[in-house]
Fold this protein.
Amino acid sequence: MSRRISPVIPGFGLTLGYTLVYLSLIVLIPLAAMFVHAAQLTWDQFWAIITAPRVLAALQLSFGTAFVAAIINGVIGTVLAWVLVRYTFPGRKVIDAMIDLPFALPTAVAGIALTALYAPNGWIGQFANDLGFKIAYTPMGITLALTFVTLPFVVRTVQPVLADIPREIEEAAACLGAKPLQVFRYILVPALLPAWLTGFALAFARGVGEYGSVIFIAGNMPFKTEILPLLIMVKLDQYDYTGATAIGVMMLVVSFILLLIINLIQRRIEKP
Amino acid sequence: MSSSTQSASSVANAARRGSPLSRRLLIGFGWLFFTLFLLLPLLIVVSQGLKMGVGTFFDAILEPDALSALKLTIIAVVISVPLNVVFGVSAAWCVSKYSFRGKSILVTLIDLPFSVSPVIAGLVYVLMFGAQGFFGPWLQDHDIQIVFALPGIVLATIFVTVPFVARELIPLMQEQGTQEEEAARLLGANGWQMFWHVTVPNIKWGLIYGVVLCTARAMGEFGAVSVVSGHIRGVTNTLPLHVEILYNEYNHVAAFAVATLLLIMALFILLLKQWSESRINRLRASAAEE
């Protein structure tokens, strides 16, 4: 099975074996158990559970808000990466370090903080309220929470790639008469796109499954602001393990199909 | 702007720095976004936590249920992080030092927990070890409780933090290659000597970086732990779950006080992360000079 680079270095069997055993015990076997549990259902029963109107509404909400949040991060994250890489200005190091805050901050803390800010009587929410719309307890609030927790993904994948692009290339293009937009379109976009897509996919996958930061700001109304992970929780609280499992399986399968598609797009870009 | 009198060097200069206006706008945007989106949430947590004064703040943190939640969070971190460190080193070792068939599948599997919802991570353990789960009856006969008890909380925490250390070490160890280890072996070091005296010093800062990220997630995990905890106050509540309970009881001041404690831990973690990152960069720079 193995073709070692270096026959002198010991530990191949030990480390591969330990890695496989640990991964199987912690991740693979439990995940497989979920699929086995779901297999107790007939296809029709499974289909009936995952196409129930309440489940479909949650499915649409979860994937929709995660997608919008990933797009927002795709834009803002790229701008932030640009600002942090290309400009030196007072406070740059502080902002750079704080970009990772959403990863370090427990999601429950992020959830209650954002709710306090964007609730109709909150510091920011009151202005929205004056203008006649609500942010917290609507899909907009969910998108906001997801944008917060997934902020670092795009910044941190685009940043190193942007830093590695030699500036001479852009300068040469500008000297040859390229307009800034042309430099962007023909030099920066092709170089950054694979990393951007990776960041986008990570943010999207995290957003679909995110629970802690969302449930405080969502309002959790069935059919309106109930996300898929919450629906799994609700089913578990009702001891409906089969229902929870069916939704879990569906969620995993849909996520993997989407990640696979993003992966394929990425490969086509990298090897034209 | 693009008059023909402009020299090529100033065009190049403009391309490098952007026009002063767009440069200022973008930096302004960065600052605005940082203030509104990252700084304000921090400020509101602290200000709400201190709303009723310092006394109430410390009462909320030092209350027995909060302390037992803190203890449980620390236990979960102390067990899950070292296990994932051993796994991460072992996984990075076999992925970066050898080539074998199925390696890319293995790397994908290591990353798998990142794309699984934390709620599902909790659910799978309930299906395995819960009363109606595969091992439920056997566990009950032997009077062992996993779900709704400490072992379940630890398992769920391990699940969601499996990839962190491995993910940091794999690219670092691939970059470093195998030459130094081979040299150690040829000079007569045995496997463990090679590992402790050559590999560990090389990967030290990457390892610390991975541990920091892993600790942050383990300490703050909510969804997965929420499913398996059973929410028994003072018994199976971690700090983030304690925040939720207080918040749902409309005890907002206490909720934000405990949240402030978590926030301070998060900022401390950011500092550690920054420090280990700068050490890695310094090592890279000195390696590039040689």
